[in-house]
Design brief:
Distance between the termini: 23 Å
Oligomer: single chain
Low-confidence stretches: 74-78, 287-293, 295-317
Radius of gyration: 21 Å
Number of strands: 0
Helix content: over 70%
Amino acid sequence: AEHARLSLPAASLGGIFGWAYFGDSLVAIASGQVASRAASAGGPQAPFLASLPLLAAGAAIASATWRENRGGKGGGGGGGGLREGASILLRRPDLLSLMAVQALFEASMYIFVLVFAPAIVAAAPAAARERLPFGKVFSCFMAACAVGSATFSLCSAKGLRAEAFLLPVLLGAAGALYLASSPPAATMLQRALSMSHKPLYLVFCFAAFEAAVGVYFPAVGGLRAAYLPGAQRGAIMALTRVPLNLLVIAVALARDRLGDTGALRCAAAAQLLAAAALASLWARGGAAGKGEAPAAKDKGLAASPAMSTLSRAKKAD
């Protein structure tokens, strides 16, 4: 909405998302180093205490500089808004596919967050488990995420469609999580990469997944701007959170039976399903790639401001 309000070129949206997440990853890299030093000096509570002034500063900046995005008419909250959002999802198979991509990918990401630290600890020698440098590990993950975001920005600047770029990334993310969960694959890859320690192998696999995360967020941000009708965006996003949270809760409750390996395989399966949903979206013709506002195809629905800008730009070309 802010992009449209400022009348910025529609083609710049992907690059803006990409560089924004790149900057976010750079901040996260520094945060990992600060957290590691704080934990060493003051114990496990110290990083949380160190974050408080940063949170306060962020809240002050947001309240002073951000303008409220109230959406369009008919996009209010409440049961009516959710019913309207559900109705739109049922009438729009392309939108349903996009929301499936988001729910499945982000559920996989949250499962990864639950599992990665216990998996690395379990793979480490007993004597080293108390000294694992998780601050540095986190910084490595964020560096991989920054690489993914920067790569997306560069590809977006060359006009590559997000659907085309994101599909192999989702498949790669599924492969990285499966390799992390598969002992035979772990043994072969450790030998191929001359890695003598399994924790290092897991960090390598998890960093590959984080690179995919770095691509995903700017890509899906652009896709949401293109496909979601602005007035119903909040309701549709809220509905998307329901299957996402249910999947994460189900895996979390089954952790004792699944173990780290089973949870990682569930995350890999979610990535494969997300890739299938994205392929379905792409196969439907990708209205955004044809210069047609998908939200406007449904009569009576308000097209998103970003999509209207995109349509005008495509027609001008």
